[in-house]
Design a protein that fits this description.
Oligomer: single chain
Helix content: 25-40%
Radius of gyration: 16 Å
Strand content: 25-35%
Order of helices and strands: HEEHHEHEEEEHEHE
Number of helices: 6
Shape: globular
CATH architecture: 3-Layer(aba) Sandwich
Distance between the termini: 35 Å
Strand order of the largest sheet: 4-3-7-8-9
Number of strands: 9
Structural class: alpha/beta
Length: about 180
């Protein structure tokens, strides 16, 4: 069986104009994750890259990072670390507050999910400005993880997020890129 190419995967991603506000072209992965062959190919491509990065654990940010990250972790037989929104974990957590384009947010993890010598690869659906991925990286590093790689399905290079992550010492890779916002 031939695996779908990144270009074929890109064709499965829907663009919704003017969402969430005028001038924004929202890249919607719903159409990709509802396509069995496309989802499987995406997971395989990401898993190959995570494996090459030496991952011993996969982390994903709520919510779409859970979809791709957990699937990659299962594909590789690795554990998955959910990076959650505040108040979602039933155990003591560590957290980080970070700036968004319009406001602030917070991420939390269970520090017991990180073990010494874990080489964690972050996976999310999309890299835009990089704020969430930078916050997740800092939080996971604070918990003791080694993080050198971040993988995404989609990069929006015009928003420069991948370069922000590279400045934080991460190797960044995405399956596809879309110009614009």
């Amino acid at each position: 069986m031939t695996i779908m190419t990144p270009d074929a995967i890109k064709a499965l991603i829907r663009t919704v104009p003017d969402f969430p506000r005028p001038g924004i072209a929202f890249r919607d992965v719903t159409t990709l994750i509802s396509h069995g062959e496309g989802l499987a190919a995406t997971v395989t491509h990401l898993a190959t890259r995570a494996n090459a990065a030496g991952a011993t654990m996969i982390a994903g940010m709520e919510a779409r990072g859970f979809i791709f990250g957990a699937a990659v972790a299962a594909h590789l037989g690795l554990g998955f670390i959910p990076v959650r929104k505040p108040g979602k974990l039933p155990v003591p957590t560590i957290g980080i507050d970070y700036a968004l384009e319009y406001g602030h947010d917070r991420l939390e993890i269970d520090p017991g999910a990180i073990h010494p010598n874990d080489r964690v690869v972050i996976i999310d659906d999309l890299i835009a400005t990089g704020g969430t991925a930078l916050a997740a990286t800092e939080l996971l590093r604070r918990a003791g993880a080694t993080i050198n790689h971040a993988l995404f399905v989609i990069d929006l290079p015009d928003l420069n997020g991948a370069n922000h992550l590279r400045s934080a010492g991460l190797t960044v890779d995405a399956l596809v890129a879309f110009s614009g916002h």
